[in-house]
UniProtKB/TrEMBL annotation:
Gene3D superfamilies: alpha/beta hydrolase. Residues 28-217 form the Serine aminopeptidase S33 domain. This is Serine aminopeptidase S33 domain-containing protein. It comes from Dulcicalothrix desertica PCC 7102. Pfam families: Hydrolase_4.
Length: 242
């Protein structure tokens, strides 16, 4: 939800064995609607495809990005060969008290957000599974988001709606990755719900992982895709040394 995309960096080297990785960055000042963000993503993808229309596109979204990925996928399903959803925050409404309590953030003083970020970390991630450097970077990233932007993006989660009938029409393979030890959101429950809706889906459970699972030292997204035969017929090329 920070919108920077920087926290994917620990996974990028592995993914580049098979993918030309593109990571969406949402400006910290951005407070546009789901519809506008969705159209922005589609425009960016089409720019990439204009350079090479033969490329296969894998759409991957984590947490807040998992909500956005669902919006993008139903808006242009033919663009994507495969979809990956990681602890999607579409589970926000499965915790009703989040829905009724989140508007109270509008009355929280500015200084509370920096202090609150520290208290949020144990819920956001399994800290014992993350290196000290990545824990520090996670905290700095969360604290870098202006309070007004946090309020807006939480309101987007509160208002998030998706047409389940349109989700059910997505026929491409979809991999749903859910953390059992997610203390922020009921990701396992949401994973099972989505797996029952998406017709060609498979769910992978990470038994010891927290919400920000991609930061954990033992989690390798590329290996998860490979193990679950989710690379399809991608050609993996290792550049020769000169």
């Amino acid at each position: 939800m920070d919108g920077t995309g920087q926290l994917l960096r620990s996974q990028t080297a592995g993914l580049e064995a098979a993918f030309d990785v593109r990571c969406l960055a949402i400006p910290r000042s951005d407070m546009t609607s789901w519809e506008d963000i969705t159209q922005s993503v589609l425009s960016l993808i089409k720019v990439e495809l204009d350079r090479n229309s033969e490329r296969s596109v894998y759409l991957c979204g984590e947490s807040f990005g998992g909500c956005l990925a669902q919006k993008v996928a139903i808006s242009a399903p033919s663009l994507f060969k495969r979809i990956i959803l990681i602890n999607p925050a579409s589970s926000f409404k499965l915790r009703p008290w989040y829905v009724w309590a989140s508007p109270l953030m509008n009355y929280v003083p500015e200084w509370v957000f920096d202090v609150g970020a520290i208290g949020l970390l144990p819920f956001l991630a399994s800290l014992s599974r993350i290196s000290e450097h990545d824990r520090t970077e996670l905290l700095e990233t969360v604290q870098s988001v202006p309070s007004q932007t946090i309020r807006w993006r939480v309101s987007l989660l509160r208002e998030f709606e998706i047409d389940n009938n349109k989700l059910a029409q997505l026929t491409q393979p979809t991999l749903i990755i859910a953390s059992s030890d997610d203390r922020l959101l009921p990701s396992s429950e949401e994973g099972r719900r989505l797996a029952n809706i998406l017709p060609n889906s498979k769910m992978v459970t990470l038994p010891y992982s927290g919400h920000a699972c991609l930061l954990e030292a033992d989690i390798n997204l590329y290996e998860i895709l490979k193990t679950n035969n989710f690379l399809g017929d991608l050609t993996i090329t290792i550049p020769s040394k000169t």
